C-alpha cells in the first residue's frame, strides 16, 4: 500500500484533493472572524485590571500562535523535503512564509499597542519581544532566499536549512517568560491545570484563533495552487512551441 504522504505529494493529486476545500474553508474563516470580532468587541467583559484594552488580546494572541505554528510547519515541510525529496513540500512551505511574516508583524504591532497601554512603553528588549523580532527576521530571510536564488532546487535547499536551523527560536519564544524575567505574563490559556481565563474571554479568543487557522488554510491552498500552475505553464509553453515547429522541421 502506498504511503499517503507520497500520494499527496503528487501535485495533481494534491490539487484534486484540496481544490474543493478552498471555498468552505474560506467561508468558515469569514464566519469565525466575524463572530470572534463581534463577541470580542461587544459580548466579552473588560478586564478588571486592563479594562477595555484587553480586547487587543483577541487579535494579538492568535496572531502570535499562528506566527509560531506557521514557522513550525515550514520547518517541518523543509524536513520532509530533505528526507523524502517531496518538492511539493518546498512549494507549500514557500507559500506559507508570507502569511507567517504577516502574523508575526501583526503580533508585534498589536503587542506594542497593548504594551503601551499596560506597561507604558511600546517596546522593551525582553526575551519574548526580542525572540519574536528574531522570528520576523527569520521569515524575511527565508522569503529573501527564494527571491534572490534563481534555481528552485538551490533556493529550496538553502531556505530549508535556514528554516530548520531557525526552529530553535520557537521554544525560546514559547518558554522565554518562564526562563527569564519578562514584562509578559506567564501562559494563561495553554498551561498545566487548564486556562485561568473566564469562558467569556476564551470564547472570542478561540473563535478568532480558529478563524485565523481557516484563513491561513484557505490562503495557503490558493497560493499553492497558483504556484503549481505557474510551474506547469512554462512546460506547456515549451511543448506548444515544439509542436508548432514540428511541421517546419519536417
Automatic annotation (TrEMBL):
<feature type="transmembrane region" description="Helical">
    <location>
        <begin position="21"/>
        <end position="43"/>
    </location>
</feature>
<comment type="function">
    <text>Required for the export of heme to the periplasm for the biogenesis of c-type cytochromes.</text>
</comment>
<keyword id="KW-0201">Cytochrome c-type biogenesis</keyword>
<keyword id="KW-0813">Transport</keyword>
<dbReference type="GO" id="GO:0005886">
    <property type="term" value="C:plasma membrane"/>
</dbReference>
<dbReference type="GO" id="GO:0020037">
    <property type="term" value="F:heme binding"/>
</dbReference>
<feature type="transmembrane region" description="Helical">
    <location>
        <begin position="63"/>
        <end position="84"/>
    </location>
</feature>
<feature type="transmembrane region" description="Helical">
    <location>
        <begin position="161"/>
        <end position="180"/>
    </location>
</feature>
<feature type="transmembrane region" description="Helical">
    <location>
        <begin position="200"/>
        <end position="222"/>
    </location>
</feature>
<keyword id="KW-0472">Membrane</keyword>
<comment type="similarity">
    <text>Belongs to the CcmC/CycZ/HelC family.</text>
</comment>
<dbReference type="InterPro" id="IPR003557">
    <property type="entry name" value="Cyt_c_biogenesis_CcmC"/>
</dbReference>
<keyword id="KW-0812">Transmembrane</keyword>
<dbReference type="InterPro" id="IPR045062">
    <property type="entry name" value="Cyt_c_biogenesis_CcsA/CcmC"/>
</dbReference>
<keyword id="KW-1003">Cell membrane</keyword>
<feature type="domain" description="Cytochrome c assembly protein">
    <location>
        <begin position="17"/>
        <end position="184"/>
    </location>
</feature>
<keyword id="KW-1133">Transmembrane helix</keyword>
<dbReference type="Pfam" id="PF01578">
    <property type="entry name" value="Cytochrom_C_asm"/>
</dbReference>
<dbReference type="InterPro" id="IPR002541">
    <property type="entry name" value="Cyt_c_assembly"/>
</dbReference>
<dbReference type="GO" id="GO:0017004">
    <property type="term" value="P:cytochrome complex assembly"/>
</dbReference>
<feature type="transmembrane region" description="Helical">
    <location>
        <begin position="127"/>
        <end position="149"/>
    </location>
</feature>
<protein>
    <recommendedName>
        <fullName>Heme exporter protein C</fullName>
    </recommendedName>
</protein>
<dbReference type="GO" id="GO:0015232">
    <property type="term" value="F:heme transmembrane transporter activity"/>
</dbReference>
<feature type="transmembrane region" description="Helical">
    <location>
        <begin position="96"/>
        <end position="115"/>
    </location>
</feature>
<keyword id="KW-0997">Cell inner membrane</keyword>
Amino acid at each position: 500500500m502506498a504511503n499517503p504522504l507520497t500520494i499527496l505529494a503528487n501535485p495533481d493529486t494534491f490539487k484534486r484533493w484540496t481544490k474543493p476545500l478552498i471555498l468552505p474553508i474560506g467561508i468558515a474563516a469569514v464566519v469565525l472572524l466575524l463572530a470572534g470580532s463581534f463577541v470580542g468587541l461587544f459580548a466579552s467583559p473588560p478586564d478588571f485590571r486592563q479594562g477595555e484594552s484587553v480586547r487587543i488580546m483577541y487579535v494579538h494572541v492568535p496572531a502570535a500562535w499562528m506566527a509560531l505554528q506557521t514557522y513550525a510547519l515550514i520547518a517541518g515541510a523543509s524536513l520532509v523535503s530533505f528526507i523524502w525529496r517531496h518538492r511539493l513540500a518546498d512549494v507549500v512551505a514557500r507559500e506559507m512564509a508570507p502569511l507567517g511574516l504577516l502574523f508575526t508583524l501583526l503580533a508585534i504591532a498589536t503587542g506594542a499597542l497593548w504594551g503601551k497601554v499596560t506597561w507604558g512603553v511600546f517596546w522593551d528588549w525582553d526575551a519574548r519581544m526580542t525572540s519574536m523580532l528574531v522570528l520576523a527576521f527569520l521569515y524575511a530571510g527565508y522569503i529573501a532566499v527564494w527571491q534572490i536564488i534563481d534555481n528552485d532546487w538551490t533556493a529550496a535547499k538553502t531556505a530549508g536549512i535556514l528554516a530548520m536551523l531557525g526552529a530553535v527560536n520557537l521554544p525560546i519564544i514559547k518558554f522565554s517568560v518562564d526562563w527569564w524575567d519578562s514584562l509578559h505574563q506567564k501562559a494563561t490559556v495553554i498551561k498545566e491545570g487548564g486556562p485561568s481565563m473566564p469562558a467569556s474571554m476564551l470564547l472570542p479568543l478561540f473563535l478568532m484563533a480558529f478563524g485565523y487557522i481557516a484563513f491561513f488554510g484557505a490562503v495557503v491552498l490558493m497560493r499553492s495552487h497558483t504556484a503549481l500552475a505557474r510551474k506547469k505553464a512554462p512546460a506547456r509553453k515549451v511543448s506548444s512551441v515544439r509542436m508548432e515547429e514540428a511541421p517546419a522541421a519536417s
